[in-house]
Amino acid sequence: MAQRFLQLSEVCEVLNISSAQAYALVRSGDLPAIKIGGRGQWRVETTELESYIQRMYEQTRTFVAQHPFADALGEGDLPH
Predict the structure, then answer these.
(1) Where are the domains positioned within the chain?
(2) What does the pLDDT read at residue 74?
(3) Is there a contact between 42 and 23 (Cβ–Cβ < 8 Å)?
(4) Termini Cα distance of the chain
(5) What is the DSSP secondary-structure string of 17-63?
(6) Mind listing the pLDDT tens digit for each residue in 5-49?
(7) Which helix (H) or strand (E) holds 10?
(8) Phi, psi angles (nearest 5°) of residue 38
(9) Would you state the pLDDT for residue 22?
(10) Which has more pLDDT, 49 or 2?
(11) What 8-state DSSP symbol labels residue 3?
(12) Structurally, what CATH architecture does the domain formed by 5-66 represent?
């Protein structure tokens, strides 16, 4: 049976991000998660993680369409 929920450390591995970045994603609500147990451990449902990834692909496609040469110039992460 497939695993339904992931720990934040597993989310970090999937997205190749730091634990601070994963925590910020769930605290901001960008990546829906739940807190369980007495110590309030965060868990992310695998379907929510996949939805988040798909949203990021869509946002990236939109960004590239609006800024077709920004990354080629090294300006992809600069605010506009």
Answers:
(1) 5-66
(2) 60
(3) yes
(4) 45
(5) --HHHHHHHHHHTSS--EEETTTTEEEEEHHHHHHHHHHHHHHHHHH
(6) 999 999 999 999 999 999 999 999 999 999 999 899 999 999 999
(7) helix 8-15
(8) -65, -30
(9) 98
(10) 49
(11) -
(12) Orthogonal Bundle (1.10)
Q: In angstroms, how far is CA 30 from the centroid of its own chain?
A: 7
Count Cα atoms within 13 angstroms, Cβ side, for 79.
0
Is the pLDDT higher at 78 or at 45? 45
**pTM of the shown model:** 0.80
Which one-letter amino acid corresponds to residue 14?
V
List the Cα angle 44/18/78 in 5-degree steps: 110
The two three-digit tokens of residue 33, written as one number: 């998660």
21: CB partners within 8 A, 6+ apart: 12, 15
